[in-house]
Structure prediction request, 250 residues.
Amino acid sequence: MSRKTLIAANWKMYKTPAEAQAFVDAFLPLVAGHTRDEIALFPSVTSLATVVAAVAGSNVAAGLQNMHFAEEGAYTGETSAAMLKAVGATHTLIGHSERRQYFNETDEVVNKKLHTALKHGIVPVVCIGEVLAEREANHTAEVLCTQLRGAFAGITAEAAAPIVIAYEPVWAIGTGKTATPQMAVEAHQIVRAEVAKLLGADIAEAIRILYGGSVKPENACDLLCQAEIDGALVGGASLKPDSFAAIVKY
Ligand code: PGA
Prediction:
């Protein structure tokens, strides 16, 4: 089994281009020569070009937090796959719970975006996760499988290789409440089993499943040292270079 861990920073609606540049200037020396894991930064759209230029030639990739599914068109405020690629970015988040919660992104929209990202050779990080009421009602497995089936509709095993999944329990995002390693591992096993049903055992074995939700330097190893957890999607603790570097070096 050789899944390379991916540690990703989701900066959400934080950091101007100057702040993003300052982060990268401080961060790159902290992770220079770090080849054990892949590292990716997801800045806001206005900082993307700055971050792409700042990480050029380094071991750090850059991507968007959200991308539209259409090739182009009258979609005010949106960013296309071609625009993402034209600035030199390589990754995109898809279906983050904040997109689902505040911008009405459905599994159908997530699915369209996934098709578009794969078509353009962009590495998609597809985010799924249950809300607290769903966990408390014992519906976590059902919610995760429904989200996965929706996201992966019409995706073939041949096209699926670049896909990364991020399991982010919504109740753990930005709350300081982290899933226990056992909870995360159980969820990842459910997700991997569903991927096996949808796309076959080989893809399920190879696909990376990240954990996200209040990952910090203090709990990074507890989570990332589990064989079933293939990386982290980090919000709050990714905003400071030393804290994100500490997570990268868990
Ligand atoms: P958090 O955010 O690390 O601040 O909980 C994670 C995310 O939303 O991806």
